[in-house]
Amino acid sequence: MGKDAWWKNKVAYQIYPRSFRDSNGDGIGDLNGITEKLDYLQSLGVDLVWLSPVYRSPMDDGGYDISDYEDINPMFGSMKDMDRLIAEAKKRGIRLLMDLVVNHCSDEHPWFQKALREPNSEEAGYFWFVRSGDAPPNNWASMFGGSAWEPVGDGRWYMHLFSKKQPDLNWENPKLRRKIYEMIRFWLDKGLGGFRIDAITHIKKMPGLPSGPAERPGGLVGCHAYTRCIDGIGEFLTELRKETFDRYECITVAEAAGVPPHQLKDYVGEDGYFSTMFDFSYAEPYNYGRGWHTAKGPGEWDFRAWRDSIYLSQTETQKIGRGAVFLENHDYPRACQKFVPAKDHSPAVQKMLGQLFFYLYGIPFIYQGQELGLDNPHFQSIDQMDDISTKNHYRIAMEDGLSPEEALPLICRYSRDNARTPFPWDNTEYGGFCASGTKPWLWAEPADPKANVLQESSEPDSVLNFYKEMIAIRKSETYGPTVVDGFFKPILKRYDKLIAYTRTGDRNLAVVCSLSDRSRFVRLPFLPKKVIQRSCAGESFRGQTLKLLPYQSLLMEF
To answer: How far, in Å, CA of 153 to CA of 162, rounded?
Structure first.
């Protein structure tokens, strides 16, 4: 989308609306709660705010199952509340992004309901219905477990790559595509700043819907090879862009899993389908295989392979466009849990991880609570948990012979609910999330009750103030141009448990992050001039030799 795009120097923030701020005391976060806290977001320094779905939805998958694309779920408020939020955000220089979920909708959407009632209707053509008798049309597995096909009782089966309550939309149908484009323009005409686009690389299915070699219980095969980045998807994505995004000044951020490096240019190049995209190649180094209970913990997976995936993503993306870099989102546990052994978690480690990602080349996305250094909360029972994926992984662990006492801590490590518990505003009951103290819709005891906005705002050395400082550095006249546009180059690759890179442009900057629990010496390829920001104090220099403390990171000029 061009090196001079209006959004290139922005900082983005993701909100999970159900858990951000409850303004009316019903235990559920809402749009008015977000409006109430816009001054906080402005003080943080963010320019773009992405909302996870607030459309009308039965909430089978946290709102990613949409039953009406042009209405607001009453649990979040009304369309009037949404219009007010957009307007109040603009007054503060903040553009609002919504989640665009168009690979699938809800089985409660009127289109699907009519398709069930009338097999020959136009709406039936909006979905992947196949007449297949008593057996599913192929052996594809759903990403949420079990078959990707569900029978409807008349010999027809419909495809659902996710929950069975999320039927896939048939993008081969031009009438369906026109409906989607009309909906997108409806929101952009309201003044929306753009979209984060969910699961978009799945909208093209392999022609013929062939079965694959069985690799899972029940003779199933993973669906990715047949439903992700399939040849011909570019025709859909080009039409989508021309019919909608090109007509507005907006930013589009694709959740584009599975895009191979040689196709990055098509997605985020000068004439790419989207402004930018998330790269998930380095998001899950633990490779959980059959289930979260078999996943490797921090220190057990291949550190160098993970680091190399970050470096490859950076070096390939900067050749053709600008990525969206992230550390956390609504689909993952808190970052510290993923990357650092539990015994070593601390605010200083949270700062190190923040520094590691924030100065990469690309537009940074901060997930709510990340700026406070939140860690995974303490769930005591599977009954406390809400996430459909978590419950599926718990079921798989039990099927593999684990007891509830054995399964729960393993599942809790990587549950999506870790990032979905209410945002802590202060030291009061439930972190001040609810106006009246009503128990929130999802709750677990926090890892650190002192990690909240009120407490950290008054502590100069807090994780919150560290994030504010990083945002200020990115926006400064002194270092901003280099952080935004500077060339990325990995350095010090011979050292284990070290991520280090330079950003060179108007200035020469370097980021060095140790993920070791021991002090260490490293030989820098330059003579340091100045330490701009540190995760904690205590480093020392002797010429080009740097002594780092355990889990310490530095931003330096050289």
So the answer is: 20
Task: Tell me the residue range of the domain where 343 lies.
Answer: 12-104+174-381+418-468
* DSSP characters over 97-131: EEEEE-SB--TTSHHHHHHHH-TTSTGGGGB-EEE
Same domain as 133, residue 32: no
| Residue where one domain finishes, among candidates 159, 182, 199 | 159
Round the CA-based radius of gyration of the chain to a whole number and report it: 23
CB atoms within 10 A of CB 178: 11
The single-letter code of the amino acid at 247 is R
Q: pLDDT averaged over consecutive 10-residue blocks of the chain (558 residues)?
A: 79 98 97 98 98 97 96 98 98 98 98 98 98 97 94 96 97 98 98 97 98 95 97 98 97 93 90 94 84 91 96 94 95 95 97 98 98 97 94 93 95 96 96 90 96 98 98 98 98 98 98 98 98 98 98 98
pLDDT at 1: 47
pLDDT given for residue 262 in this prediction: 84
Direct distance between the N- and C-terminal alpha carbons of the chain, in angstroms, rounded to an integer: 31
**Angstrom distances, CA of residue 252 to CA of 192, 226, 255, 275, 355:** 11, 25, 10, 5, 25
Q: What is the pLDDT of residue 437?
A: 76
Q: Are 239 and 177 in contact (CB under 8 A)?
A: yes
Tokens representing 111?
């289109």
What is the C-alpha separation between 26 and 220, in angstroms, rounded? 42
Residue 180 lies in a domain: yes
Residues 16 and 131 in one domain: no
Cβ atoms of 517 and 509 within 8 Å: the answer is no
- Cα separation of 483 and 476, whole Å? 10
Same domain, 36 and 79: yes
Q: Do residues 502 and 509 touch, judged by C-beta distance below 8 A? A: yes
d(CA 376, CA 369) in angstroms, rounded, equals: 11
Distance CA 177, CA 185 (A): 13
CATH number at residue 513: 2.60.40.1180
What is the residue whose two structure tokens read 């008349």?
A: 154
**3-state secondary structure (DSSP) of residue 477:** coil
Residue 398 lies in a domain: no
Q: Which residues are catalytic?
A: 198, 255
In the block, tokens 């990340």 appear at 370
Q: Is residue 1 part of a domain?
A: no
In whole angstroms, what is the distance from residue 497 CA to residue 189 CA? 48
CA 162, distance to chain mean position in Å, is 17
Same domain for 53 and 150, yes or no, is no
* C-alpha atoms less than 13 angstroms from C-alpha of 110 in its C-beta half-sphere: 5
